[in-house]
Amino acid sequence: MSAQSPSAVILIRALRFVPNPETAADNAFQADVPRGQSVDDTAARALGEMDALAAALREVGVTVHVFEDEDHTRPDSVFPNNWLSTHAGGYVAVYPMYASNRRHERRADVLEMLKSRYRVQTIMDYSGLEPDGIFLEGTGAMVLDHVSRVAYAARSHRMDSHVLERFCTDFGYEPMAFDAVDSDGVPVYHTNVMACVGTDVALFALDMIVDEQRRQEVRERLSVNGRRVVELTEEQVREFAGNAVELCTRTPDGRRRYVMAMSARARRSLTQEQVAVIEESCEIVAVDIPTIELAGGSVRCMIAGIHLDRRPSTEPDFSAAVEGIDEHPHTADGRDRAEEG
């Protein structure tokens, strides 16, 4: 694991995936299911895409914890980064969600796995702010620079500046909020569709930031430590080029290796020059997930990174007493029947 990029992630294997009708109003990236495609067909296609992402990440050495979700009332559960984030030093945050039908995506079994497999000291739960109409949808609403300790955040229904400041005070980040809109003047619903911050490279649609001075401040803050900034166009953002995430693995000889996970659609939208800049520091891992992208999110939204130290294998393990580990994902009732590659 590096300061910026986790080497382990959580994925939710949502068996009843469907684009969420409650989020369509303010998510300009959401699209309708193709005419004539059944609910069962949509769910089956999405499930195959989830499994393909897990396999691709394992192939490059990322540890993948998969939790199954059979609940048809949680259409967006495939996007766990909106309710959960983890942080170096043993800190975990749980967030308030804007759409009422997303609030029961929060899962005690996920938190229990983290506490059993990793060193967790403190869980900060902000979900009690929901009745007050105050929301901060995790690393969807914020894009975090863990090295320079900056939280980039586009203002929207999903990101309240007051709770952003509270999070930053609690976790030691500098808040950098801004207004960002598309060419029709529609606010960007989640910052992570327009921005990705890696160790040595960042992808950012700076032209979507309304205020010119703030745009320049963000540009300078991103590059202050020599990080290269790949500036995305609005068209590339609509292809989910900003919805990528840098992960860290090891080569067979023990050297650190960075990968940039994104969708195949996002990868196709990049120019050769942009790809060359990214590949100076990262290997691009691209997976085709067109069904999941109908919900208005892409690969970054599907990944909750684990920025925590592992517990030694000699310590008690949450899965140790469970029969059948390394055969099936975590089940909805919290039994850890296996996961990682």
UniProtKB/TrEMBL annotation:
Residues 322-341 are annotated as: Disordered. Residues 325-341 have a biased composition (Basic and acidic residues). Gene3D superfamilies: L-arginine/glycine Amidinotransferase, Chain A. Keywords: Transferase. The keyword Transferase applies. GO terms for molecular function: transferase activity. NCBIfam families: citrull_CtlX (NF046062). This is Amidinotransferase. It comes from Ornithinimicrobium pratense.
